Amino acid sequence: MPTERKPPLTPEQELARRTRRSFIALGAGAAVAAGGWFWLNAFEPLDNEIPRTLRRVLGFNERVVRTALFSDGHLVKTFPASAIGKLKVNGEIGMDAPADTAAWSLDLAPLGGAPQKLTLADIRALPRYEQTFEFKCIEGWSTVTQFAGARFSEFTAKFAPGSEKAAYVGMNTPDKEYYVGLDMPSALHPQTLLAYEMNGQPLSDRHGAPLRLVVPVKYGIKNIKRIARIEYTNDEPADYWAEQGYDYYAGL
Ligand SMILES: Nc1nc2c(c(=O)[nH]1)N[C@H]1C(S)=C(S)[C@@H](COP(=O)(O)O)O[C@H]1N2
Ligand SMILES: [Mo]
Question: Which atom of ligand 1 approaches the CA of 173 most closely?
């Protein structure tokens, strides 16, 4: 009997599903905050006038809200193909050597699982998504660009199931000169792709061949080109531009 593949959810369907989940999480966070207030107030040492444990709860809620409203809970605006501009090459750290697509493989380190190596064919075998959005650099420019590739959430479900529970994912170039750390909600956002095409062409060498990250809810700095390794982790991964003083989150 032929096996039937369920059609992938559209970004809108995917989002509706996740927004429901986020609201459940928000409700739980609020209940903990309200119920714990009395006890916290009476016994916790003050830290900036706010009891420390409550600060932790607030921090948690802030993360959930940011996730629900800014990264997981809304889709970045998309554009028609007629709006596509010419994305300049910007930032070539970790890309001194030209891409060796034939020899390329991806090192994958799941959360607590055995590391594995994947090929581009493995990634191309996942459903392909195309999206055209405004790519933004913290330098102040933006260019409407189309990328196509696999959804990072579906990549994770297929090759590192369970790793969605990790707090972060870290990625680096083959020479490890460029590296980014991403919070998991942004990584799992339905518009986050592992891209192998740009503006209808295979990704060019300077734009990050053979595989780059496209994370439209973040500025360009997080959109690492020429990925060689992906690691799911609960420890905040090193991040090149965060080390230079930029915001680690770097969300739009
Ligand atoms: N490997 C690598 N990836 C990188 C960078 C870099 O220097 N090295 N620069 C980042 C920055 S700051 C931007 S704006 C985008 C630019 O992508 P583009 O060259 O495809 O326009 O790549 C990001 N990814
Ligand atoms: Mo950038």
Answer: 1
